Amino acid sequence: MSAPLNVNGRMSDEELVAALQEGAGDAFTVLVGRYKDPLVNFLHRMTGDFETAVDLAQETFIRLYTRSDSYRPVARFSTWLYTIASNLARTELRRRRRWNLFGIRSEGEGTVPGTFGEPADRAELQDEQLDNVLRAERIEEALRRLPAVYREVIVLHYLQDMAYEEICTVLGIRMGTLKSRLSRGRAMLENLLPPGGGE
Amino acid sequence: MMEGRHDQKDRIRRMLSSLPRRDAPPDFEETLRRRLARRRRWRFQLPRPAIALPAAALLLVAVVSSVVYFTRFETRGISPGEGVPQGRGGRSGELPGANQIIVQPPEGQKSADPATGFRLEADGEDRTGAGMETLPKAVPPATILFSPALTDSAMKRSSRLPMSTPFIIDSTVAGGRGEPGDTSAAADSTSPPDTLSPRENSAAPDSAGIPSASGG
């Protein structure tokens, strides 16, 4: 009989996945605790909808749990996890675009309260806070209007602080493509923002 | 230029880092646990639909094929093999029996050749019209049963016949292919049937478009 696996918070991601592959449920709990916030944040920026982001993050963890056997330690665990999340986000965006194509909703409708362009209560905010909120709204709106291929590289690089090589692995693209998308994405983002909108 | 690009990068980075973070809600793990448990339950239920779906598809195919069989063959008193002539193929690319039409006999009249099942063949005496009197009377085109394999090309060929033709017969009967020595075919190919001169008209074949045995 094998000894029970000793899972603790100081273990690396790869060690935790190895423990999960051997049936240690605690390893899954630790991994969820470690990645739930960055993953929700990333998916929120990708989809522009907090509820959808939470749903997709949970689906990502479910896939991690059910398909942990397919992970091979050739890449970092975070890369693998973000690849799953990114694929789910792309599928969601594709599905939403299909629905919008045939839907009757006009642009700007369907925003979930508490996400883009919906601060909690503006009356209670001070001037400076209000400025910050409005600026964030403008940036989020510009980010949302960015095409998905440019948005994902911008978010992964500037918000998730991923290295170029890691982004290439997550998105399955070449370095040249990544650099070109980043450059175009930056230019488009600046064009989408009003002058001084981000400052 | 490089400085401008660095400025742009910094500006974007500053801008995006000023965005408020959206962290997972407090009940995230609880919801995840519930979803995982539900997913595990589904996994046990998977074999049932996996078996049921092919079975339902098989049943559907059986029902549809039975309905088609009874409506197409059983109600008309013929079996699927009867309509297709054996051992006589059409041109390459055509299904056997594609240029052949089955004519129903009028009620109460005996068939000319019970063995052939009232099929008009382009062989032998039929080409000159001899033996036509032994064939059944004309029936309206609507009652003609076309072979299921009748193709568009066969329809086009049969449409070359004069409109008054009582039977739509195999195209080779009408001489549409211009066989050597067949003057009616030549006339047919050079001038439309409606523009025949009176002389030609008197010498033209009978209204069926087939030279009668006595006149020929």
Can you put this structure into words, describing what you see?
The complex is a heterodimer of chains A (199) and B (216). With 199 residues, chain A is an all-alpha fold. Helix content of chain A is 66%, strand content 0%. Chain A has helices at residues 13-21, 25-47, 50-66, 77-102, 127-145, 148-159, 164-171, 175-192. Chain A is globular and about 55 Å long. Chain A starts with 12 loop residues before the first helix and ends in a 7-residue tail after the last helix. Chain B is mostly helical and 216 residues long. Chain B has six helices and two strands; from the N terminus they run αααββααα. Chain B has helices at 2-17, 28-45, 47-74, 152-158, 183-190, 198-203, and strands at residues 101-102, 145-146. Chain B has a two-stranded antiparallel sheet. The termini of chain B are far apart. The chains are: A mainly alpha (199), B mainly alpha (216). The A-B interface holds A 29, 32-33, 36-37, 39-41, 44-45, 50, 53-54, 57-58, 61-62, 65-66, 132, 135-136, 139-140, 143, 154, 158-159, 186-187, 189-190, 193, 198-199 and B 8-9, 11-25, 28-29, 31-32, 35-36, 39.
Task: Sum this structure up briefly.
The complex is a heterodimer of chains A (199) and B (216). By secondary structure, chain A is mainly α.
Beginning-to-end CA distance, first to last residue of chain B: 98 Å
Class by alpha and beta content of chain B: mainly alpha
* Number of separate helices of chain B: 6
Strands of the biggest beta sheet of chain B: in what spatial order?
1-2
Q: What class would the helix/strand composition of chain A place it in?
A: mainly alpha
Question: What is Rg of chain A?
Answer: 19 Å
Largest sheet geometry of chain A: none
Contiguous uncertain segments of 5+ residues of chain A: 104-119
The separation of the N and C termini of chain A measures: 62 Å
Number of helices of chain A: 8
Secondary-structure element string of chain B: HHHEEHHH
Averaged pLDDT of chain A? 81
Biggest interchain interface, per-side counts: A-B, 35 and 24 residues
Task: Output the radius of gyration of chain B.
Answer: 36 Å
Global shape of chain A: globular
- How many strand units of chain A? 0
Q: How would you describe the shape of chain B?
A: elongated
